[in-house]
């Protein structure tokens, strides 16, 4: 990039930087964003397909979940990354509707391309899209049905709809009941729901129907030593996030031992230190100990002798749940432990679940903590079930909080398209075209649902449109027949927030991408223009630390 100054070119960018401007930049960004939407669109809906993701280590994830797919993909293009961000935002805000949000954003950009071809300025498109999104919020509010905490059946249907297509079919009733009950037990007095109070443990073995809901926290570990008590009532729980080991020196220190006495003294010293640690725990009054790190064999022996029920290498996320459930404090130094730091539970017990033993922490100080143990034949089944349950818990939680739902199955999108077109005709100037484009984009949801179910997109859309024109506001796609059906009757319902959030974030990202007309990328580092390298990597590891 060079300007001219008295005949001498002036370079303002480092050599090797890349710059794309104007239509080229827009084209490349839109293409990348559409590619991301294209990558997840086949997974949309109850009949959506799954994706198998393989990382560089050969680990496999099989999923239908939009945000999971996008998180696992190693996406490099900056505009494509913005698309991934909307899936993440959607996930954080409502926990469901991630694929819809991304597909919608992709379609908004595709429609915008047509407008750009007609020389409509991005600023006009952005204004039209924003106006259409605002109008959509208003229209959606008019389509809501209220749901109360006592509407068990309706709440269950919300859970069904969220879990549809995620490997839960064979036990959808049981799982939906579990989701609703779990959320019900963690609702606060002020009506807010924090699903972090719900622990979901996965256990391979048995069938999906063997999954169960229990009060308290369940940890997928058995007690450290067989001579520790199997069950502790009136538990006083110490939570520790440091190792109960003698610290190894960083440098390779050599200790010269010249006589057997010295060796003995050395070992005695180690033993004394470990014993000292255990004594601290005992002195605090704890009879249960959960440690996030390792525990030396000798310390295990002393703990067993003291009759303390102990677990080691407990996941960090479980430690946090335990702290919350038992009212205990996670201690970072054994020497500081005191009675006040201990958590309380009526019962800590090791129980057998299929062939494995797990630790149940029940009758907790905080009655709001519950756990769901998910069962299934293989790791992949349980993992996908976990994602389905995660979505269900979140949407049921959102329903408890907002008390408002809308029909699913493409119904609100078709209604929106219809009403937005009517609204567009009231708007003058070129913005009108953008609002119409926005309306057309909404229909990508029913179209994709149909496509993924092997139905004809055009036929189904035409039928849906005419049902809505006749006033069937809740008409959505019956996946089995391809006919428009009242979704509320069919039990396909979603929290309003899933829809509003998806539209808000899809609009935001589409507008943001449209408004970029210059991409300047430095020589090294990410952001190089062009394709979307599709290698996998960066799989989320276990969270021990
Ligand atoms: P997302 O990540 O966007 O939640 P999903 O794959 O979960 O993607 O699909 C959600 C879409 O599927 C929503 O539009 C929802 O209304 C629709 N849907 C779910 N269950 C059914 C059903 N039984 N019949 C018709 N549509 C359904
Ligand atoms: Mg979903």
TrEMBL record:
Keyword set includes Disulfide bond: no
GO molecular function, one term: ATP hydrolysis activity
Keywords carried by this UniProt record: ATP-binding, Chaperone, Nucleotide-binding
Superkingdom to which the source organism belongs: Archaea
Gene3D superfamilies for the chain: GroEL, GroEL-like equatorial domain, TCP-1-like chaperonin intermediate domain
Pfam family, one: Cpn60_TCP1
Family, similarity comment: Belongs to the TCP-1 chaperonin family.
PANTHER family xrefs: CHAPERONIN (PTHR11353)
Name recorded for this polypeptide: Thermosome subunit alpha
């Amino acid at each position: 990039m060079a300007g001219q100054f008295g005949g001498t070119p002036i370079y303002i960018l480092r050599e090797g930087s890349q710059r794309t401007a104007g239509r080229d930049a827009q084209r490349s960004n839109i293409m990348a964003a559409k590619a991301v939407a294209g990558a997840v669109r086949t997974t949309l809906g109850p009949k959506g397909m799954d994706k198998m993701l393989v990382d560089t280590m050969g680990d496999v994830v099989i999923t239908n979940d939009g945000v999971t797919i996008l998180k696992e993909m190693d996406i490099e293009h900056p505009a494509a990354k913005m698309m991934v961000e909307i899936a993440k935002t959607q996930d954080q805000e409502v926990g469901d509707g991630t694929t819809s949000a991304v597909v919608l954003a992709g379609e908004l950009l595709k429609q915008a391309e047509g407008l750009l071809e007609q020389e409509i300025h991005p600023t006009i498109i952005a204004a039209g899209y924003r106006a259409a999104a605002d109008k959509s919020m208003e229209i959606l509010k008019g389509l809501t049905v209220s749901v109360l905490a006592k509407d068990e059946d309706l709440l269950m249907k919300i859970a069904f709809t969220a879990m549809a297509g995620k490997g839960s079919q064979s036990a959808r009733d049981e799982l939906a009941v579990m989701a609703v009950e779990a959320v019900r037990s963690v609702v606060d007095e002020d009506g807010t729901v924090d699903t972090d109070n719900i622990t979901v443990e996965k256990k391979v073995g048995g069938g999906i129907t063997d999954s169960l809901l229990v009060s308290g926290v369940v940890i997928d570990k058995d007690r450290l030593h067989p001579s520790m008590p199997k069950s502790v009532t009136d538990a006083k729980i110490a939570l520790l996030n440091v190792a109960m080991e003698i610290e190894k020196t960083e440098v390779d220190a050599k200790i010269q031992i010249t006589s057997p006495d010295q060796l003995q003294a050395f070992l005695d010293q180690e033993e004394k230190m470990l014993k000292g640690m255990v004594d601290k725990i005992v002195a605090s009054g704890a009879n249960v100990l959960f440690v996030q790190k390792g525990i030396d064999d000798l310390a295990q022996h002393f703990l067993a002798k003291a009759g303390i029920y102990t677990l080691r290498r407990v996941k960090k996320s479980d430690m946090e749940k335990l702290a919350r459930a038992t009212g205990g404090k996670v201690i970072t130094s054994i020497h500081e432990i005191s009675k006040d730091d201990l958590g309380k539970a009526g019962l800590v017990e090791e129980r057998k679940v299929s062939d494995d033993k797990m630790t149940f922490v029940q009758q907790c100080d905080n009655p709001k903590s519950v756990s769901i143990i998910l069962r299934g034949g293989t790791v992949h089944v349980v993992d996908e079930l976990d994602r389905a349950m995660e979505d269900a818990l979140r949407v049921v939680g959102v329903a408890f909080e907002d008390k408002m739902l809308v029909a699913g199955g493409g119904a609100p999108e078709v209604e929106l398209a219809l009403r937005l077109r009517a609204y567009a005709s009231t708007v003058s100037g070129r913005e009108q075209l953008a609002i119409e484009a926005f309306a057309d984009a909404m229909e990508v949801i029913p179209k994709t649902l149909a496509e993924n179910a092997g139905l004809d997109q055009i036929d189904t859309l035409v039928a849906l449109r005419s049902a809505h024109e006749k006033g069937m506001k809740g008409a959505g796609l019956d996946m089995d027949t391809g006919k428009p059906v009242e979704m509320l009757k069919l039990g396909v319902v979603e929290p309003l927030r899933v829809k509003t959030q998806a539209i808000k974030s899809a609009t935001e990202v589409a507008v943001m991408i449209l408004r970029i007309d210059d991409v300047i990328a430095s020589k090294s580092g990410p952001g190089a223009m062009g394709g979307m390298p599709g290698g996998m990597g960066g799989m989320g590891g276990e969270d021990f630390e």
